[in-house]
Design a protein that fits this description.
The chain has 9 helices and 5 strands, in the order αββααααααααβββ. By secondary structure, the protein is mainly alpha-helical. The strands form 2 sheets. The protein has a 3-stranded antiparallel beta sheet, with no helix packed on it.
């Protein structure tokens, strides 16, 4: 219990610190570009036209809504983080208890079978946490996207729950959950399997600092996996706000997608599968024109 409380407190602190970053990322994912491109330099020092980065975007939000504007949607996100941590911990405890009761031959630590078993348990725990907390995730995203149309439709957790249930029913709370679950599962398996093969076949256990090297490989593979599965995150977030009555989820910002596969196909055809993946050195979309009035690219 103490460990879970500690995880909740740590997670809540990190959520508060990272919330402005997520807020800006979501607005970019939707396609909202309130500031026109400017002439700057890329990482190689060459002059190019760039889209505003994280800090320029944050200044615009502060100018519009004040510093508190950077924390729209924080309350439901904290709820999701707290509940998700508790559910994740409880599911792992139940799985461990069942494993102890019905334990037969235990897989050797570091073996492929051990990695598969641990990854499966972690995937089940994460999926349960995601399903339980997804309604709060949907509310968080919609609170953020209100910035585009200056709406106040989703003003609080309880009011948002009533609004979503009244307009969309139970399914509205789970908009975009399928690509989110698939992305989380793929990311976890790619990360753990790559780390296992690197640690097993590329790292010599006889060398010094083996533990630090293995931890580093886990971090690198985690970053690589998140890059590969980013399109699932993008599609999930777009589906969570699609056709919900907010300007950011309706044309011209987004088409009305019947399901997440149509959203994926549309983004792929438009070349927007990585939109919002980077908030620094943001280059202009190829073949797109900036519309000043609508603050987006066509």
């Amino acid at each position: 219990m103490a460990d879970t409380c500690g995880q909740v407190l740590l997670g809540s602190g990190l959520t508060v610190l990272s919330h402005p970053l997520m807020y800006i990322k979501v607005l970019v994912q939707v396609g909202h570009e309130p500031l026109p491109p400017t002439l700057g330099r890329n990482m190689f020092g060459r002059q190019v036209y760039q889209l505003p980065g994280l800090f320029a975007y944050a200044k615009h939000i502060i100018k519009t809504d004040g510093k508190s504007g950077l924390f729209k949607g924080l309350t439901p996100r904290l709820c999701a983080g707290t509940i998700g941590t508790i559910v994740h911990s409880k599911v792992l405890q139940v799985r461990y208890a069942h494993q102890v009761v019905g334990s037969g031959q235990k897989a050797e630590d570091g073996s492929l079978q051990h990695v598969v078993n641990e990854t499966t348990k972690e995937m089940i725990a994460r999926s349960c946490a995601t399903i339980v907390t997804h309604p709060f995730h949907v509310i968080t995203l919609r609170c953020m996207v209100q910035f585009i149309g200056r709406e106040a439709k989703y003003s609080g957790v309880f009011d948002s729950i009533v609004t979503i249930y009244r307009e969309e029913g139970i399914l509205g709370f789970f908009a975009g959950i399928i690509p989110r679950l698939l992305g989380d599962a793929l990311s976890l398996w790619i990360c753990n399997m790559l780390a296992h093969f690197i640690n097993t076949y590329a790292i010599d256990d006889s060398t010094s600092h083996t533990g630090e090297i293995k931890n580093c490989s886990q971090a690198v593979t985690g970053f690589f996996a998140s890059m590969l599965t980013y399109p699932f995150v993008l599609v999930s977030n777009l589906m969570a706000v699609n056709n919900c009555g907010l300007a950011g989820g309706l044309p011209p910002y987004a088409a009305i997608y019947p399901n997440w596969l149509h959203c994926w196909g549309h983004l792929s055809r438009e070349g927007n599968m990585s939109r919002g993946n980077s908030l620094f050195f943001r280059k202009l979309p190829a073949g797109k024109m900036y519309a000043i009035e609508q603050k987006r690219f066509f």
